[in-house]
TrEMBL record:
It comes from Erythrobacter aureus. PANTHER family: PTHR47234, TONB-DEPENDENT RECEPTOR. Transmembrane segments: none annotated. Residues 765-775 have a biased composition (Polar residues). This is TonB-dependent receptor. The lineage of its organism: Bacteria, Pseudomonadati, Pseudomonadota, Alphaproteobacteria, Sphingomonadales.
Length: 1040
């Protein structure tokens, strides 16, 4: 039985057992309720709190201040999601629920992180499209430890969803209140603290298409003691989320397509008249279309481009042409290539266990002790396909694996017939087994505080927190460059067999490698070249603080409220490989998901990433500390008009002292309308990775500006990247011709045995290593934010609220790195390029490394304070609750809308030219977003219908300003619909059955293929696509 079959059987068994357990609990709960007439009624839902016409929302003490304040008294807009909202969202993932709010974007998600080494399976949010590292996530108003080794981001899958009472999302600069990172805003997850009884919630969901089943079990149990002075609450959550593989049930996921320019081929490859796509072929070489796409790396191998093994047989450009090809046809990946998409994970397998405990005891009005402890274990697995091997794979010393020697004994006649010398190659290593990213993430969080009343007017709180996150990652079935090079260099062993040429390699177990044809790599050779990666990352966070708040004195319009306090925080990070391999369960083999076979492999402890195909983590150990003091004031100037101010000073042992502040006002002009505004200055200090990290491996797409260059100086017509539209092609050509490696490439063409190659163009690969590095010279980024808006609650329409807010956020000295493409393009477009000293030509050229044949093998991306970012827009909300006379029951309408006016970044290019890149209107960054929810409830029944809308866009506004031209790729607006139904029953309505349909019309989103700035071989953009498709769910809840 395969691992996948076993997992399926285990999941079905778990669901059956747990459903039976819930049924038993329902029966027991009914008996308990019948025997206990004092059973507590359910507390108000989040919607009840938020929309109550009777003013119940005034009872909420909201995020954004340590001064007691309600939603309507806040100078900045706050969106609230209650427990009922979370249930009706149709998802068990808190991030997905919050993402349904306009202005909240996805940062890292399970469906968007499949090809990410460190972040696969995380669930984070991003306010105002400014990034999850500028969105501060709080738990009960306190910071939470990061769940990532390469940034400050909290994964919301580590919070038990059934334990969350409500979520408050506040947009706007909040560094003066909460410190660094709160540039875009704050999301505060407030946990239950007064539930008594036992609540069990069982939920199961399934998709129309294959895979994606999910089972969740939630338990909540709370009680008070000591005559109500003490309280304890335990919450637990288990979730089993089945993986989703790319297959025919989701056609877009396996479509072998790309967006590209089918430039007519030249030379003698036989394809000049063959690449003819209607409406996409001709003299216009800038016209791009959706084209077939296949990988040159096939399971049987492609050699010199002249011989290849596909579909069980050999082809070449001599005597073995496919039947529908002209004589002399080369391998053409669009038609002959390998479709790498089927079978890859589009959603990972996730197993989640969360538990939380909260307890409190009130010794007196002057002292109440509270404690929250939580634990989370999130295990994820996703499969990425098979690794590839080619002659251009580069080791850390800058040398390639290289061509196969012409004397190689395994060269078959079909390749021998076509080769002109040594043999270049591309081969997919199916025999090694599928690559996978297997992560085990554990998180501990603790919050303890003592609070109480110092006087009748002033309260205090003293608190401390600790958080610890650890990630163990296994990456099986990569390959070792060094071992592969040894294994391809073979000779006769004198006994009728073959051996590796290197004696050192033979002493280390080298096994000859045969890559000619499918299934030719022996198990022993696969074991020798296989590399099973392992790494660990750990984050720790300590905080301590104290504050006082209350009323300073009275004024005619009311009391002057204040808060003041101090905080200390220490953040630390460690990343390392396992020196002994003891913790690597697969060091002696990884179990394959299909056939159950255990595959062996070499273990390389703490290896340099240039030696393997895996982008491993560099070892790093870093920490910083910060001490802060802050104060807030709320001054009632006259009746209905309040001035609100806050300030915070922080002293970092890395960047020194920073200062944040905000100033706002709220004016209740009448009983019907309220005006609010705020100006804030916020900072974000560089995080541990940005400040301390050595180069971290990463692979980036690159369109080399020298691509297409011919020895005679022709061939370059345009280049990619920011500012590329202003590049002088003559300058680019001159600079490229001076690169020694490119001249070596041309010299090799001139001296080979095929005269047809003499004027062939320089043809580099389309990707390169783009390691990301920290920078100890960084300083804080600073944002200025302006918000202004109103809330209209007309007395003549009871239950109606209209609100709108304008905002503008400008970030100076934004911490970022210049994109790999921009670095290379800016370097070679520079008139000051000096071929005798490229590194000294400008600040970009020194970051580029080319190999001896001109290929860009590395572009260093290091963090700088280099950009200005601006986001501008409006948010609007309509809330209306009414009970029509002609229909029993109550309706709730909740419409939330976001419109963006501006979303752009700037950085300084060559010649101190400021380059502006507007992302607004591009794919995933549409101008408009909204959510409309219509709810209905009567008696024990409730229902809702929700529509979520996100605007479409074009691929690249900068390079494709004429978005109406058909040659530029566009996607349309996307809308997703869902239905929720619930019925409460039992003597005290303690039982609930609920269910619904997500993505009612099965909109899986647009095709966003590779070849696009926003595309990939997964054919999706995570903000617009719903990989799962239409999904059904049912659940049952009992409370006793």
């Amino acid at each position: 039985m395969s691992d996948r079959e076993y997992s399926k059987m285990k999941r079905s068994h778990t669901v059956a057992v747990s459903t039976s357990a819930l049924a038993l609990a329902l029966c027991m709960g009914g008996q308990a309720s019948a025997q206990d007439a004092a059973t507590q009624e359910a507390p108000p839902t989040g919607q009840d709190v938020e929309l109550a016409a009777d003013g119940a929302q005034n009872a909420i003490v909201v995020t954004g201040t340590r001064i007691e304040r309600t939603i309507e008294e806040s100078a900045v807009p706050i969106q609230v999601l209650g427990a009922q909202d979370l249930e009706e969202s149709g998802t068990t993932d808190l991030a997905e629920a919050v993402l349904q709010l306009p202005g909240v974007s996805e940062a890292v998600s399970p469906q968007g992180s499949n090809n990410q080494i460190q972040t696969s399976g995380l669930s984070t949010i991003n306010l105002r499209r400014l990034g999850d590292d500028r969105t501060l996530v709080l738990v009960n108003g306190k910071r939470a430890v990061s769940n990532s080794g390469n940034s400050d981001r909290v994964s919301l899958s580590t919070l038990p969803s059934g334990f969350v009472e409500r979520v408050e999302v506040l947009t706007g600069g909040m560094s003066a209140v909460y410190g660094s990172d709160a540039i875009a805003g704050v999301a505060n997850f407030i946990l239950e603290d007064d539930f008594t009884g036992v609540r069990l919630d069982n939920r199961f969901s399934w998709a129309d298409a294959n895979g994606g089943e999910e089972y969740r079990l939630n338990l909540l149990a709370g009680t008070d003691f000591a005559d109500g002075r003490g309280y304890v609450l335990l919450g637990m959550e288990y979730r089993d989320e089945e993986e989703v593989f790319a297959d025919a049930s989701r056609p877009l996921s396996i479509a072998a397509l790309e967006f590209d320019d089918p430039i007519p081929s030249t030379g003698s490859d036989g394809w000049t008249n063959e690449i003819n796509y209607p409406g996409c072929f001709g003299e216009d070489t800038d016209r791009h279309c959706i084209l077939p796409s296949g990988s040159i790396s096939t399971p049987g191998g492609v050699f010199e481009g002249d011989a290849w093994f596909v579909n069980g047989r050999w082809f070449n450009d001599k005597s073995l042409n496919p039947g529908d090809r002209p004589a002399g046809s080369d391998f053409y990946s669009d038609f002959d290539g390998y479709n790498l998409r089927p079978g890859r994970s589009n959603l990972p397998q996730r197993n989640i266990f969360n538990a939380a405990l909260t307890t409190s005891f009130e010794f007196s009005e002057a002292a109440k002790f509270s404690f929250i402890g939580s634990y989370s274990d999130v295990d994820t697995t996703y499969y990425t396909g098979y690794e590839t091997l080619n002659d251009n794979d580069t080791l850390g010393d800058g040398t390639d694996i290289g061509n196969i020697s012409s004397s190689h004994p395994f060269i078959p006649p079909e390749v021998e017939e076509t080769r002109s010398g040594s043999v270049s190659f591309d081969r997919r290593l199916v025999e090694l087994g599928e690559q996978a990213r297997i992560n085990d993430r554990s998180t501990w969080r603790f919050i303890a505080d003592v609070s109480g009343a110092l006087t009748d007017q002033i309260d205090y709180e003293v608190f401390g927190t600790y958080g610890r996150f650890k990630q163990k990652q296994r990456n099986p079935n990569e390959y070792n460059f060094r071992n592969a090079r040894f294994a391809l260099d073979i000779e006769s062993d004198g006994n009728g067999g073959f051996q590796c040429v290197s004696e050192v390699a033979r002493s280390e177990g080298c096994v000859p490698l045969n890559i000619f044809g499918e299934g030719t790599i022996s198990a022993a050779a696969a074991d020798y070249i296989r590399y099973n990666g392992y790494a660990e990352q750990m984050r720790e966070q300590y905080t301590a603080g104290a504050f006082v708040n209350g009323t300073l004195f009275e004024m005619p319009a009311g009391g002057v409220k204040f808060a003041a306090g101090v905080e200390w925080r220490r953040e630390s990070q460690e990343t390392f490989g396992d020196p002994d391999g003891d913790d690597f369960a697969g060091v002696n083999g990884i179990r394959d998901r299909d056939d159950g076979a255990v595959r062996g492999g070499t273990y390389v402890p703490d290896i340099d990433f240039d030696v393997t195909s895996l982008a491993t983590f560099p070892s790093v150990k870093a920490s910083y500390e910060v001490k802060e003091a802050y104060a807030e004031l709320d001054v009632p100037v006259f009746d209905g008009f309040n001035i609100q101010a806050a300030a915070r000073a922080g002293d970092y042992n890395t960047i020194g002292t920073i200062f944040s502040y905000n100033l706002g006002a709220v004016w209740q002009a009448s009983d019907d309308i309220l005006f609010r505004a705020q100006f804030s200055r916020s900072q974000r200090a560089p995080n541990l990775t940005e400040y301390f990290s050595p180069p971290r491996p990463d692979a980036d797409d690159l369109d080399d500006p020298c691509d297409g260059l011919r020895p005679d100086g022709t061939g370059i017509s345009s280049i990619e990247g920011s500012g590329a539209e202003n590049a002088d092609i003559a300058v680019v050509t001159r600079n490229c011709l001076t690169v020694p490696g490119i001249q070596n490439f041309f010299n090799e063409l001139a001296t080979d045995d095929d005269p047809n190659n003499d004027n062939d163009p320089f043809d580099p690969g389309s990707s390169t290593q783009g390691p990301n590095a920290g920078n100890p010279n960084l300083f804080e980024e600073t944002a200025t934010t302006i918000t202004a808006g109103f809330a209209f609650t007309p007395r003549f329409i009871p239950g109606l609220t209209l609100a709108a807010d304008y905002y503008r956020i400008k970030i100076k000295d934004a911490i970022a790195s210049v994109d790999t493409q921009d670095i290379v393009s800016q370097c070679f477009a520079s008139p000051e390029y000096d071929p005798s000293n490229p590194a000294g030509s400008n600040r970009f050229c020194g970051l580029i490394t080319r190999d001896t044949m001109g290929e860009v093998i590395e572009v260093l991306n290091f963090q700088e304070n280099l950009e200005t970012e601006v986001v501008e827009g409006i948010d609007a909300q309509l809330l209306y609750r009414f009970e029509p006379e002609f229909i029993p029951g109550r309706f709730d309408i909740d419409f939330r809308y976001a419109h963006f006016f501006k979303q752009e970044t700037e950085f300084v290019g060559i010649g101190d030219v400021v380059l502006t890149n507007s992302e607004l209107g591009e794919i995933g960054n549409g101008e408009d977003e909204f959510r409309l929810r219509v709810g209905y409830r009567t008696g024990r029944f409730r229902a809702s219908y929700t529509v979520t809308y996100r605007g479409g866009g074009v691929d690249d506004i900068l390079n494709h300003p004429n978005s109406t031209d058909d040659q530029y790729f566009k996607v349309g607006d996307q809308d997703f619909h869902r239905i929720y139904l619930a019925y409460n029953f039992g003597p005290d309505e303690q039982f609930r059955l609920y269910g619904g349909v997500n993505n009612l019309f099965d909109n899986k989103g647009p095709l966003v293929p590779s070849g696009l700035d926003y595309g990939s071989s997964y054919n999706l953009d995570t903000s617009l696509n719903d990989v799962l498709g239409r999904e059904f769910y049912v659940g049952a809840r009992v409370r006793f």
